[in-house]
Request: fold
Amino acid sequence: MSSNNYWKGVEELDQTKEFVSSNANEFSEGLPLDKVFSNDDSTRANRRDFLKYFGFGLGAVTLAACNKAPIRKAIPYTEKPDNVTPGVPLYYASSSVSNTEGFPVIVKVREGRPIKFEPNKEATYFGGGLDGLGHSAILSLYDTNRLRGPMVSGKRKPLSWEDFDKEVKQGLAKTVSLGKSIAIITNGSNSLVTNKAISDFKAKYNNTEVIAYEPISYSGILRANTKSFGQRIIPAYNFDQADVIVSFGADFLGTWISPIKFHSDYSKNRVPKEGKMSKHYQFESLMSLTGSNADVRVPMKMSNVGQHLIALYRELGGATPHQGMEVAGNTIKVAAAELKAAGNKGLVVCGSNNEADQLLVNSINMMLGSYGTCIDTTNYYKGQTADEADFNAFLTRAKSGNYGAVINLDTNPLYSHPAAKEAFNAIPMRITTALTLDETSVNATHIATNLHPLENWDVKEPYKGRYVIAQPTISPVFEGRSSASSLVAWAGGDVADKAETTHAYNYTKQTFEAIVGGNFNKALEIGIVENLSAASVPSFNITGRAAADAIATKKGVDTELIIYQKVGVRDGAFGNTPWAHEMPDPVSKVTWDNYISIAMPDAKAQDLETGDVVKLTTKTGTIELPVLVQPGQTKSTYGIALGYGRLLPEEVKNDLKDLGKNAYPLVDMTAGYSDYTIGGVKLEKVLTPYKYEFGITQTHYSIEGRDIIREATLDEYNKDPRSGSYVHKPKMISLWDDYDYSKGHHWAMAIDLNSCTGCSACIVSCSIENNVPIVGRDEVRRRREMHWLRIDRYYSFEAPSQKDLSLSIVHGGEQTVEAGEQMTREKVMEAYSAASEDTDSAYDYYQNVRVAHQPMMCQHCDNAPCETVCPVLATTHSSEGLNQMTYNRCIGTKYCGNNCPYKVRRFNWFRYNENEKFDYHFSNDLGKMVINPDVTVRSRGVMEKCSFCVQRIQATKLTAKRENRKMKTDEFTTACAQTCPSNAIVFGDLNNKESEIAKLYANDRSYHVLEELGVKPSVQYMTKIRNKK
Amino acid sequence: MIKKKKQVALATIFTLVNTLSYSQNNMSSFYSESTFLALIILSVVLAAIAALLYGIKRHLTVLNNEKFNEQIEPSFYDAKIRPIVEKWNPTIATLIVAGALLVILGGFGYKFGMDEVGVQQGYAPSQPINFSHKIHAGQYEIDCKYCHSTVEKSKSASIPSLNTCMNCHKYVKAAEKYNGKTSPEIQKIYNAIGYDGENMEYIEGYEQKPIEWIRIHNLPDLAYFNHSQHVVVGKLDCQTCHGPIEEMEKVYQYSTLQMGWCIDCHRERGIDSENNDYYEEAHKNMIAEGKDFISVADNGGLECSKCHY
Reply:
């Protein structure tokens, strides 16, 4: 294998003119010096102007320097709370706010303001990690668009709660007197407190209906499980129990059901132990995060998934007269054989929302015996319970005027359901609980401003018997009230605060004690209570044969559109969290946009390139978006992400409104369920003067054919643990006197490319910990993203299977290339030489790519090239092995960035936190609350980069010194390592021989990126092992 | 005419001297050093303009006289200075004058830049309450840590919250000095926290108003300083940096708080490696190397990212 096989994007592979010219320089745009110094009057800025500006600048600087030092105030508490020490953070166990399921987290609080989420390591079942959106969602607390108090439509001025309640009660009483019903829309809530409040409300208004609504539907699984074993549930999937995982279009590491937990479970078997690791087959149409991590990834069409499932069912010995459909390379047969061998250690999951497909999946898993091992139906998942059939029925009833009032609890159906607006408008009284003005609340007659989850009490039950307790970590910023308290108030209850405790606290405590039981304070401390039942295996009511019969008539379509969720933005509920938008998509590396992803063969056939705008037409509507050519995507499939194209009212101020287009109206509901695979799609090129430019980070640097990423197969690894590291260790000759790092601490990091899935949670965690500014789409286009940590995603071609093209893939006459082996493009093209004449299958090889993810941050080189070129010694080396960056010394020559072989230094172009043009919550007073006070907010004109979270190093050392003890082994870790759900990043002190890092440094798979340069990096990578022959 | 000129010159000098002395005495409260500098620059600019105007006037006079053939007495410059100047080599003269100016102004600028810009040594602003450390820390010998209670736990020593003041001032009203009435300064505490001094009870539902003290010791945001590091681990006395605080009626900034001041101390002072288990290894190495002292600098205390991150 040669490193030349890897490429970061189509542009690099093709060496397009734009790519070559833009990568020739460190920065995408040069300074317009020639213009400034030219005497040509036709250019706007000439020498005279330059001198004018120069003179003015000098004068301005002189005057600015004359400023009096500002008077700074120090305002102490009037009565200091006992447990608060100014300058020392407090940590509270609570629940993540980015999803409704309830996910245990720790909230870091400084002087009464939450500044960061950290994973709750006590909650081992959930994996001790967190995702990018979970981190970003803290900004929703400090959103200036938050409503200030309860409001009545027409009057955008907050009312008092008394007046508001009076109006609501009058309206509800009128509804009752008219004999009409009241509807409560919940987010399928698994919140015990909300459910208790709803039952209190129902006790007063017995004509109340409760309807669950979730923007993303899993009704296929719910309905199939009802039929299969009489339980309307989504089971708990235990990927850690599975030796063989076969996924049909389920992006379980990215967006499917509960990805953070799946991540940590999945990664437990991904590092070879005693020569073994789990095997993962992924059949999918788009290139998903999960697919990018699969050992064997086979492109298929999602509309054919039922037929493929039949084929798998047959291969496993299921009785059915139907043939089904095999995929390229007979991979289903191979997968079936492995599943059979794995028995109850095999797991099949499917992303289809079709009931029949899921019924067959259930049968297959039952045949394997996975129920009770990989699938737990006793302590099942409770985060998703809604069936869109109920909501659609509600909409129909609403249109016919059945309801006098609707109470919408924190959902936003008017954005995510195209038919909801008309139906809602047929209801005279529309109450909604919301934090900001969104599509639903702007259309409401009454807005009962909610408390942010971080200001509120709650008990959630994400899994049956597992309770996550949410506690407030800040006193309410605005005049909100918990939606449970609102319901109780409207039912006539007294929600006034009593004896220094709020109603929400008392109500939550009562609910907890009644339903869960046990010590409430103890539960608050840990954040999670588990009352589990012994797992049992369900008995099946339906055979696989019947399930297969139901699918048999379902045929694939010519061209299909897949509606999917992006890892960063998910269903769009937290659309106003810029960190999530700036996080590059783990696969496409696009920020801030959605797009139509398209396969290379289709692009070539229809003469499309990335950035061309097309009009896509389906049965239910049209959408106009730019296209993005995505390697690995199946021919004749298109993908559009949900969560974009928000229609927010004028009052909502920020730049997040004009992002992408809304794909929810395209979801096909004609068959009685939300089908995210839509057939009969037409594509039409729209003529635009310019190509659309994405803020895309993947091609900001080029790999230049260097040996950066290393991989091997499991067989090779078992023969030689050092395989993949094919480069001989170079003999190092150093120009420098070696420094002895064996005394004191020596900080280092190890990154396991096998565990790393590329989920990008670390990027956001790092940004929040280190006050990394959000720069916005335009600046990303100029290659000015500020992320200290990036994840490089490399593609390489795979040899196609023989069946694919009925070709014998012989290279050079002698050497036969096995299907699935890594190849250079030239070899692939050679193999396809016959096909390239056939225009239909030319470029088909772009469907077979494999992906490697590699987190890249400052490598803290012992012989750091950046340090030697700094003219002002702003970057220096510490005795503990850190490459230090001193911002106040930096004069911004950018020499260090030029000389860095890893391209991890970022130049700070603007004062993002003071500049109103960067309206991403950082530039206003409320948004600034999220800033970590222990880290400098950098000004413009300086270089910055990963510091190995030196503030955490220093804080932990100080604690040890104060407590008169040595530092404990692995006492702390960096923000990226802490949040990694798959534990791919390990940080520690190399000089402590018991530390995890010291053990990992002795690992056979370890290598340093570009070690031949002799820069001696302190970050070690471990070769990626794929479970292949 | 001449008399008038003299008057103007005298007035100018008087103003300048006054400004200078005023600024030196009340540097911190009225003029900051930089305002003073701005005034100096302004004066120089105005003087230059005056000189320019004088030159123009003179020139116009000469032109006028040439036109109307009027004789005038040569100016003071023409009569006395010009003959001397004309003997000089203009290049060398210019260089000498420019060099001298450069040395003087540069020296002044360097000294000013290094010692004055941003340095607020001696800064003693008036506080909302005329709190006297001399009485509390000096006369009554109250331990610093009683009020600055987080100094051993946190990076900030913290200004005490009002309930700390009330521990004593619930009863201590200094009434003997004010004819049986509560001292007006103590009354400020009561007004802030909502305490009825007469009836010795807190007022129900009082809207408390925190005291807005003026920060005296301002480190720039780019420097991380931790009190507990210096007080607990470094075992420094408060007075080392804050000066004779127990003698201060009004607190002023005792040290320069410049980086050089930090560095000097880090070079001179040693770490207590013997009595802190954290330094066990360092202490062994020290003995092995035959030394009897590890300075903070030896321990990495001069490395950038120990304070800047």
In short: The first strand of chain B starts at residue 195 and ends at 196.
